[in-house]
Write a structure and sequence with these properties.
With 352 residues, this protein is α+β, with helices and mostly antiparallel strands. The chain contains 14 helices and 7 strands. It has a domain of 78 residues: Alpha-Beta Plaits (2-Layer Sandwich), CATH 3.30.70. Strands 5-6-4-7 form a 4-stranded antiparallel beta sheet, covered by helices on one side. The chain has a 3-stranded antiparallel beta sheet with strand order 1-3-2. Strand 5 and strand 6 form a beta hairpin. The chain starts with 6 loop residues before the first helix and ends in a 38-residue tail after the last helix. One of its GO terms (biological process) is DNA-templated transcription.
Length: 352
Amino acid sequence: MNSPFHIEEIYSDDGSNALRMPRRQVGNSPQGFAMTLLADYTLRTRAALPSAAIVALLTESGVTTAGARTAISRLARRGVLEGSRHGRRSSYRLSRAAAANLSSGGNWILTSTTTAAPWDGCWTIVAFSLPQDHSTQRRALRGQLRWLGYAPLYDGLWVSPYELTPRARAQLEQLTLGTVTVFRGRQNALGSTSDRAPIEAWDIDAITRQYAAFLDRWTSLLPLVSAGQVDGAAAVRARTEVMDTFRRFPTLDPQLPVELLPAGWLRQPARDLFAAVYDGLAHPAEQHVRAVVGRFTDSTPLGVRAHTTADLIAGVRGAAGTTSAASAPPAEWETPDSAVDCDEVTVGPRPS
């Protein structure tokens, strides 16, 4: 499912953290599949799985053996996976940092696709100016803004209907080093054809097509899931793919106010369908993963446990001892305090 945005803007990878999560690709990538697979069945426990079992599960999803091994190796180099060896057998598990990141991300995916909070009619505007030779910094800033729920109304001017939180402000300050200004206020419409509404920063038609494609792809599978006719490798593959696809929506449609959207917006139907497929396949998929892992171990794989969307919303607790609810989500916004008039313009770090 192709995205209406450049992939670098959807998935920020500025290299500022020790943990380097793989940059998401359009379509299914071996690293993305491997990370989703381990998160779906070991996030609670951070259980180590034999590398041969991970390769076997990935090949069932259409990844080549060489591609699966390369993905595991690269995830280990990125700090996403931790390796261990027992005799001639190697195993891998999610690192503590990756588990915390994925737990937070899973919570964000679900909470960000619920009905948007009441909107006060105000917009947050982020204006920035960077020299032409600062392309890396510009790309990192655009990626961070996209993660924070912003979209470009004009070059160098991004907007969001929600207040910039203190944590988000701190993230932007680290990236921009005095090259950004933040305002909040209402649009003063010109009432002419030259007037451009802030909501036009998002390609609403393109997002609608994304939702429609998702619904078209997965609706036909739902009766089979409900009837228990999807199991084994097919259940694991479908569950991995539906998560890998659905998690793009919180960035494409970051809780945009329903007042600004066409009637019959497909956010909720897509979320409901995702939950029905993902949760409906949890048990058969877990059973298959256990069976595959069991072929490569001498004991019963007790650490394989699928979670549901309800678990992700509540916070999946792993061996790292943290919950997703306690971690800051990758994208963060909030409705402003009702005591603050949004017509009072607030200015953030000023360009130097």
